[in-house]
Amino acid sequence: MKRGILLIDRGSKEQEAAQELEVICKEVQKKGDYVFANYCFLEVRPPYIEEGIKEALKNKIDSLTIVPYFLYPGKKVKAAVTQVMKHQATTDVKFLVTKPMSMHITLVRLVENRIKSALEKEGVKLPNNKVDVLVIGHGSKDPNAKISIKYITDELAKSYRNADYCFLEIEEPNIEQGIKICKQRDPEVLVVVFYFLHEGAHVKRDINVDLVPALEKHKMKQVLITQHLGTDEKMVDLIIERAGEVER
Question: How far apart are CA 122 and CA 39, in angstroms?
Fold first, then answer.
């Protein structure tokens, strides 16, 4: 059985998103033993889904595993899957669609790695139960998005002094409100997690438009910022695990 795998990402104008996806696909292909591994975008920039499917089908594969590479379930995931399945009728290659990258303990472990790295970089040696965490997500009109990020903070709260979430846009609490909540808890150190897949415009610019003034307004003893999720090996493992769920 010759298997291929195709990641469908939302899309970003920033070149870093494509570069990160290239790294991830190479690792997934090698670690998952796929004949073909590549990515495409739902919107914003090519290669779009149609191009991604056509490129995948040029390879002599028996099945193609489609991975909605999104942190939240919702309309974008449904739109991506709908577009993909239009092409199933045109080929004998079997399409398998995974769950998105949400509600999984591996994401919690990845976030914990990001927190640990931020603390180590600044030489902070406090135990986890003395550390506060604020996870900043994108925000969505879909209620499942809030459930997904709350899953992360609920798991983090088992180890850290406090774990809260807020959103860049669309939903509340917004970033200023999230920082205010953290300030009221008087943390020894607050670690702010950028809960985004790529180093796109949100990570490079948009978050700081709200975060910097919020931190100046609600001054705390020490605030550390993590890297986004990016090309962490645990994300590769999660993709392969999600793929395995439908391939089995």
Answer: 35
- pLDDT surpasses 90 at 227: yes
pTM, to two decimals: 0.94
pLDDT bucket at 244, cuts 50 / 70 / 90: very high
Q: How far apart are CA 26 and CA 18, in angstroms?
A: 12
SS3 per-residue string spanning 205-232:
HHHHHHHHHHHHHCCCCCEEECCCCCCC
Q: Are 3 and 98 in contact (CB under 8 A)?
A: no
User: In the prediction, which pLDDT does 32 show?
Assistant: 97
Place of tokens 């080929």: 91
**Among 136, 118, 130, which residue's Cα sits nearest to residue 181?**
136
Domains of the chain: 3-100+231-247 (3.40.50.1400), 105-225 (3.40.50.1400)
pLDDT at 115: 98
